[in-house]
Amino acid sequence: MSEHVEVLVIGAGLSGIGAAYRLQTESPGRSYAILEARETSGGTWDLFRYPGVRSDSDMFTLGYPFRPWREPKSIAAGRTILDYLRDTAAENGIDKHIRYGRRVVSAAWSTPEARWTVRTATGEEWTCSFLYVCTGYYRYDSGYEADFPGRESFTGPIVHPQHWPEDLDWTGKRVVIIGSGATAVTLVPAMADRAAHVTMLQRSPSYLLALPTREGAARRVGPHVVRARNVLLTWALYQAAQRWPDRVARALKKGVAEQLPPGVDVDPHFSPRYAPWDQRLCVVPDGDLFAAMRAGQASVSTGTIESFTPDGIRLTGGEHLDADVIVTATGLTMVAFGEIALTVDGREINSADLHVYKGMMFDGVPNFAWCVGYTNASWTLRADLTSRYVCRLLNYLARHRIDIATPTLPADAHDTGEPLMALSSGYVQRAASVLPRQSDRRTWRMINNYLLDLPRMRLSRIDDGDMMFARIKTGA
């Protein structure tokens, strides 16, 4: 026995709740359900419980445009964001559409029936006319764990931030955090107050940018104006980094140098080997990382690990970092489509063989979209555009009595060799074999530019020549 809805949304996190709101308001009257693998909503913001977990971009752009962020802090704590998501779902009746404990394992498309048959890990079956995957792009079950030599010899706890133990006590202990990304930068100041000392051990540094957490302008001009301003500022910084990478790199490093304690140099600890925005920029709210360093509570060590030891980590240069607790903030494991096994008319779909259409759909896969945010701006900016485009597409299909919409890559298009996310970050490079790819055609590229995407996603023609349509009589 299966249950049928017109649109099936997978995932009840930031993207899924936003998708549901847009379905209700811009494609109303359409039946939908949200299948959530976990027993609670919130996605990332419910899963991550490590100390200091917070947004890595400002909440005026990470928040929903239809429910403006009104808290005084623009860089918000994870719990505050979780409350915001759940309040949004409750206020709009979205929570009544969520079905918990349904981890989707497979989805099979049938052209004769013009529908997807979706199965969960418990054997439950759903059917839908359109499948919208809002699961994000990383594996919830486990983060990336590097194979460090001698790991088993360390006598203290080794913790990955993605699965933080509730009973971990680091009070008065020496902590080494392996990593240099947003998670590591967040953990250092959050743990420093209670720890004897916290060391951030990095193989190579990231670009850091200190920003204030409070947004005084919101009360004067309103959250919508602040949101628009922040969109423009983020866009301008990214464009400047692309045009004048050396100048932007010098400016970022100068900003860091002004906040470091005496005796700590920018080089090598804060001089990345890549250009700005080849990897994500890490925000340091209120310069808390640097404050912990100036207070002598934290330090940064740059080097390569030779092996773990019973009481710490030995680097290849001979230095030994004493530790009672080691945190491996070594990144995420990226996956495509929430690791759902897809088939189209019995044909298995390999995500790495697909080409992305408008950053959300894929060649040869009918009535299907995957919500992926920007890598150089707030996730929600792109997620909301994607959901609004899905609504436009659904309305077009209904208006023209069309059952099937399938993006079809032009025969003369060429693969660029770029994965969906063109970053040099380790977690992206490790996922190159599973991520869909980009083509040389503009429509078949992931454009990380909100100002260009906005008119393209909101105003461009649905019947643009690359989308194929079909009418099939169904019994639904």
Written overview of the protein:
This protein is 28% helix and 23% strand. With 476 residues, it is of the alpha/beta class. Strands 1, 2, 3, 4, 5, 6, 17, 18 and 21 form a nine-stranded mixed β-sheet that branches. Strands 7-16-8-9-12 form a five-stranded parallel β-sheet. A three-stranded antiparallel β-sheet has the order 13-14-15, with no helix packed on it. The protein is globular and about 75 Å long.
What percent of residues adopt helix (DSSP H or I)?
25-40%
What is the overall pLDDT average?
A: 93
Estimate what percentage of residues fall within beta strands.
15-25%
* Uncertain runs: none
How is this fold's topology laid out?
Layout: E1 2-10, H1 14-26, E2 32-35, H2 44-47, H3 59-62, H4 78-91, E3 98-99, E4 104-110, E5 115-120, E6 125-133, E7 158-159, E8 174-178, H5 182-192, E9 197-202, E10 208-211, H6 217-221, H7 223-243, H8 245-257, H9 266-269, E11 282-285, H10 288-294, E12 298-302, E13 305-309, E14 312-315, E15 320-322, E16 325-328, E17 341-344, E18 347-348, E19 356-357, E20 361-362, E21 368-370, H11 379-399, E22 404-407, E23 415-419, H12 426-430, E24 437-439, H13 450-459, E25 467-470
Parallel strand pairs: 1-2, 1-6, 2-3, 4-17, 6-21, 7-16, 8-9, 8-16, 9-12, 10-11
Antiparallel strand pairs: 4-5, 5-6, 13-14, 14-15, 17-18, 19-20, 22-25, 23-24
Helix pairs in contact: 1-11, 5-10, 7-8, 11-13
